[in-house]
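Quick one:
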Amino acid sequence: MSERWKPSVTVAAVIERDGRFLLVEEDTAEGLKLNNPAGHLEPGESPEEGVLREVLEETACHFTTSCVVGVYLSRFQRPATGEDVTYLRIAYGGSVSEPDPALALDEGIVRTLWMTLPELRASRERHRSGLVLTCIEDYLAGKRYPLSLVVADPTLYTPEIKR
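Output:
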């Protein structure tokens, strides 16, 4: 029997302040890339818990979610290795605190930066994926869904045991 295909689930944050968007510059196998604060969902955490954790780890800022911007499915082939990965991304909108100077940025994160939409569009070749700009453009187009759109069943924390 062949192994069941599963996409990698990621969460991302779209954070706007004064017409600028918070991004991270990260060291990847393909070089320095720009990304929304984002990362993989970990076992036993809801998508909202995951995005709060990822934003804190990557920016040293506390994130407050206000909406779901969208749910996205994309595919990426790593040029260096040929690895083929499909991602399911849940993007949240919200705001952040000022960075906590006592916290270090996650390994691989070089810096945070605030960019305007024209700056983002001009730097597409440096985006980690096409979803960086897509999520921001969806946010600017007014796409906002209630946080209740994404449901974390209680069995996520305490698995149901079938007898």
